[in-house]
Amino acid sequence: MSEPFPFTSSGSQWVGITDRVMGGVSTGSITREVIQGKECNVLRGQVSTKNNGGFIQMATDLALDPSVDVYVDAEEFDGVEMEIYCESAEVEEKFNVHLRNPACDRQNSAYRATTEVRPGSWATVRLPWDAFEGYGPGPDVTPFVPLIRRLGVVSIGKEKDVVLAVGQIGFYNVV
After folding, report:
1. Phi/psi of residue 27, nearest 5 degrees
2. Which residues contact 147 (CB under 8 A, 6 or more apart)?
3. CA trace torsion 102, 58, 123, 160 (10° rounding)
4. Whole-number Å distance between alpha carbons of 166 and 175
């Protein structure tokens, strides 16, 4: 899955990506739907850990004008906030948000934060900057700075069927 998707409010486009880019066998797709009255992006698929795989994601670049700057400076904010919904037989499901900044010079490099979601109802999730941990070459030795190029919402590491919806996503400040 590496398909185009509707544009974000900032004008960038959402894309779907699976572990097939590295030889995995997970499958997935993204659609625009209405769930419980809320318009949202929906990631559907199956995560498989076969062939050293194990993820599906929807991601978008954040820059308003990449010809000027590919990064968004989010230092004036306290973290990422999103409205999220999932379907599952589990009591709670874990999903990641992955951020890429200048330290992320490899495809498998990101700053990751994990959130738990109760299936069947919408929830607002806040992930403060200090929840993001470096993973892969670069971020593993570089402290996180919220100068962000790409944001991804990811189901990773566990074999499962995925229905994950994002109704809204942005940055927040603690008041």
Report:
1. -125, 155
2. 71, 72, 73, 74, 75, 101, 102
3. -120
4. 24
